[in-house]
Amino acid sequence: MRLNMTTGRDLVKGSTDSLVLYLISEKPMYGYQIIKELEKKSQGYFKFKEGTLYPALHRLENTGLIDSQWEILPGGRNRRYYRITTKGQRTLAEKRSQWRDFLVAINLVLQPGTSDAR
Amino acid sequence: MRLNMTTGRDLVKGSTDSLVLYLISEKPMYGYQIIKELEKKSQGYFKFKEGTLYPALHRLENTGLIDSQWEILPGGRNRRYYRITTKGQRTLAEKRSQWRDFLVAINLVLQPGTSDAR
DNA sequence: ATAATATACCTAGTTGTCCTATGTATTTAT
DNA sequence: ATAAATACATAGGACAACTAGGTATATTAT
């Protein structure tokens, strides 16, 4: 039943917004494209579900970190392009440093050093 | 309102069980001790809430990754010591490799290389 | 003495993210 | 003709994390 036991995908929780924000910061992208790009760049590791990505995009837009613009394609298959905002860039920078802090903390714990404060 | 915006503690989500499992694997510990040790080792970064840790411990015990034994102290303040099981050790090893895979994937995405598969 | 803090356990209820499943609609490949 | 890919969307359920409360003893500060 529990599929996620061995995949380790739960680690993704909490990093979704950062990853998406980062990708969009490189160049404006639409949802479906983000899913494909993330999968390609990570060599198959990240396979975002639509039920994960689209709510995340709406979340990011609602908090003003990204904004969007529809591109009307010939036919009915339109695309919604997302662009990072100035606020989003500030937040992304913040998230980068948070990520570094997190890694440092993890390494401190895993470090087989003294557990005594000095 | 949203306090967690700047703390970056959401990154912890998904790594709680691994951290706890790792700590216990070093030596048997009781809940309160785990909270304090994690805080000390991480130099203040990890400050697990009781509402986070105790359910996590019960979760790990229910899935057979750890087991517990009460230590009766003189007075009424007893301690419940947790020990990693064989199954827990296997799972911990798995989680280590998942963590490595996750870091690799993240770095692949953040790498400013070609996004073309080769 | 007494109040506050630290130690030590616990859980019910809320919140929020992620996934499943489903829906709509067009285009391309078989 | 039919399946798969492209492209968007959301309702519902599962589950982890936190808030906030509870119980009880020991220690430290006032």
Entry keywords:
homodimer; 118 residues; mainly alpha; Arc Repressor Mutant, subunit A; three-stranded antiparallel sheet; 3 strands; elongated; DNA-binding
What order do the helices and strands come in, and which of them pair?
The structure is a homodimer of 118-residue chains.
Chain A: H1 16-26, E1 29-30, H2 31-41, H3 50-62, E2 66-71, E3 79-84, H4 86-110
Antiparallel strand pairs in A: 1-3, 2-3
Chain B binds a DNA duplex (30 and 30 nucleotides) through residues 9-10, 12-14, 16-17, 30-33, 36, 49-52, 54-56, 58-59, 73, 75-80.
Question: How would you explain this protein's 3D organization?
Answer:
The structure is a homodimer of 118-residue chains. Chain A is mainly alpha-helical. Chain A has one domain (5-110): Winged helix-like DNA-binding domain superfamily/Winged helix DNA-binding domain (Arc Repressor Mutant, subunit A). The first copy, chain A, has 4 helices and 3 strands. The first copy, chain A, has helices spanning 16-26, 31-41, 50-62, 86-110, and strands at 29-30, 66-71, 79-84. A 3-stranded antiparallel sheet of chain A has the order 1-3-2. In chain A, β2 (66-71) and β3 (79-84) form a beta hairpin. In chain A, α1 (16-26) crosses α3 (50-62) and α1 (16-26) packs across α4. The longest helix of chain A has 25 residues, at 86-110. Chain B binds a DNA duplex (30 and 30 nucleotides) through α2 and α3.
